[in-house]
Amino acid sequence: MSFFGGSPIFSGSIEVVCGPMFSGKTEELIRRVKRAQIARQKVQIFKPAIDNRYHETEVVSHSSLSIEATPVNSSVEILQKVFDSTRVVAIDEVQFFDENITVVVEKLARRGVRVIMAGLDQDFKGVPFGPMASLLAIADSVDKIHAICTLCGAPATKTFRKNPKNSEQVLVGETDLYEARCRSHADFFGEDQDQLAFFVNLNSASDKSQNL
Ligand SMILES: [Zn+2]
Fold first, then answer.
1. Which of 48, 71, 112, 119 could be 10's S-S partner, Cβ–Cβ 3.0 to 4.6 Å?
2. Ligand 1 mean position, distance from CA 175 (Å)
3. DSSP string, 114-148
4. Domain that holds residue 114
């Protein structure tokens, strides 16, 4: 460890664990937190107040591992609640936070805090969820983990909403509402509505006209 003016310099970092529902993100977050606690590092765990599926003040994984967590209503509230002595900050369901979360975690890392976050990288339409795209970009380490497709057993990277008629991005639920799916079994819009496919067709059509 290096020392400056007699105080140890801690190196901060930003870690993201992402993937679809049922991939074990929260379990991985809890595993990292428990290892830090074994090393006697002071850890604080936060979660958005919106996620009360299992417990108001605990982070609970699908396999019922759990750990105490502080529910917060905004990302700035995390900054207000982190103690000077805290070495590790863990944030679960980070996709539900506002865009300021990127500023908050950068500030914490600059102070020497190790920040570990877990969240859904995509919503049920396959679009980057809330602040996740920005968080993945600024992270020092990213682990994208897979679930298992409920239809074919292939690695699943998508969260499929069983009733897509309800188009709200945030609809907190469990296996009653969602399934993990592989790319080919999570075709959200079909080829007809795929804008990229439309442009590819358009370009290949204009190529043909040049050849005439
Ligand atoms: Zn599949």
1. 112
2. 16
3. EEEEEEESB-TTSSBPTTHHHHHHH-SEEEE--EE
4. 12-146
Measured in Å, residue 145 CA sits from the centre of ligand 1 at 16
Classify residue 163 as exposed, middle or buried by CB count within 10 Å of its CB (0-12, 13-18, 19+): exposed
205 within domain boundaries: no
Catalytic residue, candidates 15, 56, 58, 93: 93
* Residue that is written with structure tokens 């009360």 in the block: 52
To the query of whether residue 179 is one of the catalytic residues in this protein, the response is: no
Q: Can you give the pLDDT of all 212 residues of the chain as single tens digits?
A: 444 444 455 689 999 999 999 999 999 999 999 999 999 999 999 999 976 555 556 666 666 567 789 999 999 999 999 999 999 999 999 999 999 999 999 999 999 999 999 999 999 899 999 999 999 999 999 999 999 999 999 999 999 988 767 777 677 777 778 999 999 999 765 555 555 555 555 555 555 444 44
Output the CA 151–ligand 1 centroid distance in Å.
5
CATH of the domain at 104: 3.40.50.300
Strand partners, 209: none
